What does this fold into?
Amino acid sequence: MNRSVKDTASEFPAVAGRLNAVPSQSPGYWTLVRKRLMRDPVTLIAAAVLVLIVLSAIFAPLLAPYDPFMGKITQRMKPVGFAGHLLGTDETGRDMLSRLLYGGRLSLTSGIVPVAIALAVGGFLGISAGFFGGPVNSVIMRVTDIFYAFPSILLAIAICGMLGTGLFNTLVSLTLVFIPPIIRISESVTTQVRSLDFVEAARASGARPFALMRYQVLPNVLAPILVYATSLVSLAIILAAGLSFLGLGVSAPAAEWGLMLNSLRQMIYIDPLLAALPGVLIFLTSMCFNLISDGLRSAMDVRLKL
Amino acid sequence: MLSFTIRRLLQAIPILLGVSILVFLMVQMIPGNALDLMLPSDAPKDLIEKMKAEYGFDKPLWQQYLRWLWMLLHGDLGVSIFDSTPVAATLFDALGNTFVLAIPAAVLGFGLGIFFGVTAALNNGKAADKALSMVSITGVSLPHYWFAIVLVVIFSVELNWLPAQGMQFDTLPSTVEGLKSMVLPVITLSLIPMGVVSRVVRAAVLEVMSQEFVNTLNAKGLWSRSVLGHILKNAAPATLAVMGLQFGYLLGGSILVETVFNWPGSGNLLNLAIFRRDIPVMQGTILVLAAFFVLLNLVVDVAQALIDPRIRR
It folds into this structure.
């Protein structure tokens, strides 16, 4: 799947014909990426499913048929498809559909927010390290090496175990976990770009370091960093749910997929299908992000070397 | 080669020191005083002072760190606050139980991963490639703690073939019952390495296949099996690197799977220590797992250099 600009132009003869009068009017990089994505059914389906999950989490208060925190003690562990409760009820008689809808809010937040913050912080530090080199690089990268010495799950659990439970602590620990890998990848791609001719030309014309980083380096390193960050979101969602599954993340009675999985775990002998439901959503969401990351990777023609 | 190994060994020392500082500082992040967790809230003042002196909490932070490091270097990880047993002995037993699962899981995951990755790359773009890519992306997207529950539902609850949890032997499995208790945890643990390794191997093999020397070998009429040998040898360093990382994750990430299967490994120990606020056990477990990860990466680097002399620089 390595298409060049030329291939794409020949695939759109109509466009190329109309533009014949204006020579060398080739479409921009991001236009190309968009066109390639539009012809990638797997990525499009993944994106559609993800949009559906995100929208249902945002509009949970409108969509949920019941209060996700209030259960009827007489209505416990009703099976999937039970009249009035489409997806059944949990061990304290709360409506599963409502809890799954609300659960998406916490699970998606704790998957996306840490990666977004880590992307900003780690991207800045990594690009700076790669761009300036020398002592700046040494300081940033040696500290990164130390964080990198911990397997990501271990680091998240360690930080959460020390800080205590709660959404905020989950976000802090996951952000800290994802900053080092983003620094690594940003530093490595920036090092490849910074000595290219157009950067030297801009430097020779008097551009200052931060202008160079913003206008010459950033556009050329954004694609690989973005692709990598998308795949990290999928990991973040699994990790965040895993933390609450262990009892280290958000605590009861919050509606969160990992926490629901944990409290329903005792019920696998009574209704295994019901107990497995929250995990299906964690899996589905994480899969969507991985598929989108793969789609972006081939559309942006990124080859990551980690 | 020797000088590369020595250089790489020396590089690991500052990282190990940094790791020890980080683990030491993590404890300082715990809200409140470490002593408050050990003593009752109505403890007399002189007892508090005595305990402070005993644990060295009355000294400045850097002295506390050096004292802790000195103990570490003598193989002393301190004593559990919960039951006053030496941390090192408890941790050693637990690590053994973790390795009993991690090694077969690594063999299974890496074996399948390499096989899937190579097969997918050789069939690039065909149906087999697409099917295997789906398998590997599922492997990296599945929350393995959930997959563990699904396996328990199928094989323990519904079919009643395998035990749902627990380790049915002491150190090594010697009976059929013991082996049966390992099956579900090992399958669960092998899932992520299978997915990750197969994706990396596929990419590495495709990258090597696009190089010109492969064309040359084919053009010279070399047997396709010999060409495959050359391709695999060139894809080996990238594969080794990811296998090293994944083995480290198997140990560090064992906490979730060990919790589901109630397996008395290092992950379970860490989980218990967190809920008991047993700081020495927490510190010791995290430190030893991280140190092991650093050394593992070192071994991988040396192994890579053995295969590919260009890495020795």
